[in-house]
Amino acid sequence: MSDLISIKGGRDGLRLRLDDTADWQVLTEALKQQITQNSGFFAGARLTLEIGDRALSDAQMATLLDLLQHYGVQIESLGATARESRNAARASGVTARPLPRYQEPAGPAPAAESDGMMVTRTLRSGQVLRHHGNITLIGDVNPGSELIAGGSVVVWGRMRGLVHAGALGNAEAVVCALELRPTQLRIADQITRTPDGVGRLGPETARIEDGRIVVEPWEGPKRG
User: Fold this and answer.
1) Helix H or strand E encompassing 143
2) pTM more than 0.85
3) Would you say 129 and 150 are in contact if contact means Cβ atoms under 8 Å apart?
4) Which tops the pLDDT comparison, 223 or 19?
Protein backbone atom coordinates (compact mmCIF):
# COMPACT_ATOMS: atom_id res chain seq x y z
CA MET A 1 0.00 0.00 0.00
CA SER A 2 1.00 3.68 0.03
CA ASP A 3 3.83 4.75 2.34
CA LEU A 4 1.20 6.91 4.06
CA ILE A 5 -1.19 4.04 4.75
CA SER A 6 -0.82 0.58 6.24
CA ILE A 7 -3.32 -2.12 7.02
CA LYS A 8 -2.96 -4.93 9.51
CA GLY A 9 -5.21 -7.66 10.80
CA GLY A 10 -5.50 -9.60 14.00
CA ARG A 11 -7.99 -11.16 16.39
CA ASP A 12 -9.70 -7.78 16.73
CA GLY A 13 -10.16 -7.39 12.97
CA LEU A 14 -8.62 -5.04 10.43
CA ARG A 15 -6.80 -1.86 11.40
CA LEU A 16 -6.14 0.93 8.89
CA ARG A 17 -3.33 3.19 10.03
CA LEU A 18 -2.83 6.65 8.51
CA ASP A 19 0.38 8.68 8.64
CA ASP A 20 -0.14 11.46 11.17
CA THR A 21 2.38 13.93 9.67
CA ALA A 22 1.39 14.00 5.99
CA ASP A 23 -0.47 16.91 4.42
CA TRP A 24 -4.20 16.34 4.87
CA GLN A 25 -5.08 16.71 1.19
CA VAL A 26 -2.25 14.40 0.15
CA LEU A 27 -3.35 11.84 2.72
CA THR A 28 -7.00 11.80 1.69
CA GLU A 29 -6.05 11.48 -1.98
CA ALA A 30 -3.72 8.58 -1.16
CA LEU A 31 -6.47 6.90 0.84
CA LYS A 32 -8.96 7.30 -1.99
CA GLN A 33 -6.46 5.87 -4.48
CA GLN A 34 -5.64 2.86 -2.31
CA ILE A 35 -9.26 1.96 -1.70
CA THR A 36 -10.14 2.41 -5.37
CA GLN A 37 -7.24 0.25 -6.53
CA ASN A 38 -8.06 -2.46 -3.99
CA SER A 39 -11.85 -2.24 -4.03
CA GLY A 40 -12.21 -6.01 -4.01
CA PHE A 41 -10.50 -6.18 -0.63
CA PHE A 42 -12.13 -3.16 1.00
CA ALA A 43 -15.74 -3.45 -0.20
CA GLY A 44 -17.90 -4.24 2.80
CA ALA A 45 -14.97 -4.12 5.23
CA ARG A 46 -15.40 -3.07 8.84
CA LEU A 47 -12.22 -1.78 10.46
CA THR A 48 -10.55 0.32 13.12
CA LEU A 49 -9.00 3.58 11.93
CA GLU A 50 -5.81 4.73 13.65
CA ILE A 51 -4.59 8.30 13.09
CA GLY A 52 -1.87 8.69 15.73
CA ASP A 53 -1.14 12.25 16.85
CA ARG A 54 -3.18 13.96 14.14
CA ALA A 55 -5.81 16.38 15.49
CA LEU A 56 -8.95 16.01 13.38
CA SER A 57 -11.61 18.69 13.18
CA ASP A 58 -15.29 17.78 12.91
CA ALA A 59 -15.15 18.65 9.20
CA GLN A 60 -12.11 16.42 8.59
CA MET A 61 -13.74 13.54 10.44
CA ALA A 62 -16.85 13.92 8.29
CA THR A 63 -14.67 13.92 5.16
CA LEU A 64 -13.01 10.65 6.21
CA LEU A 65 -16.31 8.97 7.01
CA ASP A 66 -17.90 10.11 3.74
CA LEU A 67 -14.90 8.90 1.74
CA LEU A 68 -14.81 5.48 3.36
CA GLN A 69 -18.57 4.95 3.34
CA HIS A 70 -18.67 5.88 -0.36
CA TYR A 71 -16.55 2.78 -1.02
CA GLY A 72 -18.51 0.56 1.35
CA VAL A 73 -16.02 0.70 4.24
CA GLN A 74 -17.42 1.00 7.77
CA ILE A 75 -15.40 2.42 10.66
CA GLU A 76 -16.06 0.54 13.89
CA SER A 77 -13.78 2.69 16.03
CA LEU A 78 -11.11 5.38 15.86
CA GLY A 79 -7.80 5.29 17.70
CA ALA A 80 -6.10 8.64 18.32
CA THR A 81 -3.85 10.34 20.85
CA ALA A 82 -5.42 13.79 20.37
CA ARG A 83 -8.53 14.46 22.45
CA GLU A 84 -9.82 16.72 19.65
CA SER A 85 -9.84 13.75 17.25
CA ARG A 86 -11.62 11.48 19.71
CA ASN A 87 -14.25 14.16 20.33
CA ALA A 88 -14.77 14.58 16.58
CA ALA A 89 -15.23 10.83 16.22
CA ARG A 90 -17.77 10.61 19.04
CA ALA A 91 -19.68 13.60 17.62
CA SER A 92 -19.96 11.58 14.38
CA GLY A 93 -21.24 8.53 16.20
CA VAL A 94 -17.96 6.60 16.03
CA THR A 95 -16.48 4.88 19.08
CA ALA A 96 -13.11 6.44 20.01
CA ARG A 97 -10.23 5.23 22.15
CA PRO A 98 -6.86 6.63 23.24
CA LEU A 99 -3.89 5.42 21.23
CA PRO A 100 -0.25 5.26 22.41
CA ARG A 101 1.98 7.69 20.60
CA TYR A 102 3.54 6.24 17.45
CA GLN A 103 7.08 5.06 18.00
CA GLU A 104 7.83 5.02 14.27
CA PRO A 105 6.29 6.29 11.04
CA ALA A 106 3.52 4.17 9.58
CA GLY A 107 5.72 3.24 6.61
CA PRO A 108 4.86 0.65 4.00
CA ALA A 109 2.75 -2.33 4.99
CA PRO A 110 4.67 -5.56 5.48
CA ALA A 111 4.51 -8.09 2.67
CA ALA A 112 1.31 -10.09 2.81
CA GLU A 113 3.22 -13.34 2.94
CA SER A 114 4.91 -12.37 6.22
CA ASP A 115 1.69 -12.07 8.19
CA GLY A 116 -0.69 -15.01 7.95
CA MET A 117 -3.87 -16.06 9.72
CA MET A 118 -4.94 -19.61 10.58
CA VAL A 119 -8.59 -20.21 11.41
CA THR A 120 -10.48 -23.36 12.35
CA ARG A 121 -14.14 -22.83 11.53
CA THR A 122 -16.81 -23.21 8.87
CA LEU A 123 -17.91 -20.10 6.99
CA ARG A 124 -21.67 -20.11 6.57
CA SER A 125 -23.82 -18.13 4.15
CA GLY A 126 -23.56 -14.39 4.82
CA GLN A 127 -20.26 -14.63 6.70
CA VAL A 128 -17.06 -12.93 5.48
CA LEU A 129 -13.49 -13.66 6.55
CA ARG A 130 -11.05 -10.94 5.49
CA HIS A 131 -7.31 -10.62 6.21
CA HIS A 132 -4.51 -8.54 4.69
CA GLY A 133 -2.08 -11.48 4.52
CA ASN A 134 -2.35 -15.21 3.81
CA ILE A 135 -5.31 -17.19 5.14
CA THR A 136 -5.32 -20.87 6.06
CA LEU A 137 -8.79 -22.10 6.95
CA ILE A 138 -9.41 -25.55 8.38
CA GLY A 139 -13.06 -26.14 7.60
CA ASP A 140 -15.54 -25.50 4.80
CA VAL A 141 -16.49 -22.31 2.97
CA ASN A 142 -20.19 -22.65 2.20
CA PRO A 143 -22.13 -21.01 -0.67
CA GLY A 144 -23.03 -17.41 0.16
CA SER A 145 -19.90 -16.86 2.28
CA GLU A 146 -16.74 -14.97 1.29
CA LEU A 147 -13.03 -15.50 1.93
CA ILE A 148 -10.89 -12.47 1.03
CA ALA A 149 -7.10 -12.32 1.48
CA GLY A 150 -4.32 -9.95 0.54
CA GLY A 151 -2.13 -13.03 0.05
CA SER A 152 -2.82 -16.68 -0.73
CA VAL A 153 -5.69 -18.86 0.50
CA VAL A 154 -5.53 -22.48 1.66
CA VAL A 155 -8.77 -24.22 2.58
CA TRP A 156 -8.41 -27.58 4.28
CA GLY A 157 -11.96 -28.47 3.35
CA ARG A 158 -14.57 -27.60 0.72
CA MET A 159 -14.36 -24.23 -1.03
CA ARG A 160 -17.90 -23.52 -2.27
CA GLY A 161 -18.31 -19.79 -1.64
CA LEU A 162 -16.59 -16.71 -3.06
CA VAL A 163 -12.81 -16.61 -2.71
CA HIS A 164 -10.55 -13.67 -3.56
CA ALA A 165 -6.80 -14.17 -3.12
CA GLY A 166 -4.27 -11.42 -3.82
CA ALA A 167 -7.02 -8.88 -3.15
CA LEU A 168 -4.43 -6.14 -2.52
CA GLY A 169 -2.92 -6.66 -5.98
CA ASN A 170 -0.70 -9.72 -5.44
CA ALA A 171 -0.89 -11.61 -8.75
CA GLU A 172 1.44 -14.32 -7.36
CA ALA A 173 -1.17 -15.43 -4.82
CA VAL A 174 -2.74 -18.88 -5.13
CA VAL A 175 -5.90 -20.61 -3.95
CA CYS A 176 -5.71 -24.21 -2.72
CA ALA A 177 -8.54 -26.38 -1.45
CA LEU A 178 -9.32 -30.04 -0.84
CA GLU A 179 -12.46 -29.46 -2.91
CA LEU A 180 -12.42 -26.39 -5.15
CA ARG A 181 -15.95 -25.53 -6.28
CA PRO A 182 -16.27 -21.77 -5.68
CA THR A 183 -19.25 -19.72 -6.77
CA GLN A 184 -16.68 -17.11 -7.79
CA LEU A 185 -12.89 -17.26 -7.89
CA ARG A 186 -10.68 -14.16 -7.97
CA ILE A 187 -6.94 -13.74 -7.89
CA ALA A 188 -5.71 -10.12 -7.92
CA ASP A 189 -7.68 -8.47 -10.76
CA GLN A 190 -8.57 -11.72 -12.54
CA ILE A 191 -12.00 -13.18 -11.99
CA THR A 192 -13.86 -16.26 -13.13
CA ARG A 193 -16.93 -18.19 -12.09
CA THR A 194 -16.16 -21.54 -13.66
CA PRO A 195 -12.38 -21.92 -14.11
CA ASP A 196 -11.27 -24.67 -16.49
CA GLY A 197 -10.83 -27.90 -14.60
CA VAL A 198 -12.72 -26.95 -11.46
CA GLY A 199 -14.62 -29.88 -10.04
CA ARG A 200 -12.09 -32.65 -10.61
CA LEU A 201 -11.83 -35.17 -7.83
CA GLY A 202 -9.12 -34.42 -5.30
CA PRO A 203 -7.36 -31.29 -4.01
CA GLU A 204 -6.77 -28.48 -6.50
CA THR A 205 -4.86 -25.21 -6.72
CA ALA A 206 -5.58 -22.10 -8.78
CA ARG A 207 -3.13 -19.45 -9.92
CA ILE A 208 -2.66 -16.87 -12.64
CA GLU A 209 -0.78 -18.01 -15.73
CA ASP A 210 -0.51 -16.00 -18.96
CA GLY A 211 -3.04 -13.49 -17.73
CA ARG A 212 -5.79 -15.94 -16.78
CA ILE A 213 -6.74 -18.18 -13.87
CA VAL A 214 -5.82 -21.84 -14.31
CA VAL A 215 -6.63 -24.77 -12.04
CA GLU A 216 -4.59 -27.93 -11.63
CA PRO A 217 -4.25 -30.82 -9.18
CA TRP A 218 -2.76 -29.80 -5.84
CA GLU A 219 0.08 -32.25 -5.46
CA GLY A 220 2.49 -32.63 -2.61
CA PRO A 221 6.27 -32.35 -3.10
CA LYS A 222 7.68 -35.13 -5.21
CA ARG A 223 10.24 -37.40 -3.58
CA GLY A 224 13.48 -37.95 -5.42
Assistant:
1) none
2) no
3) no
4) 19
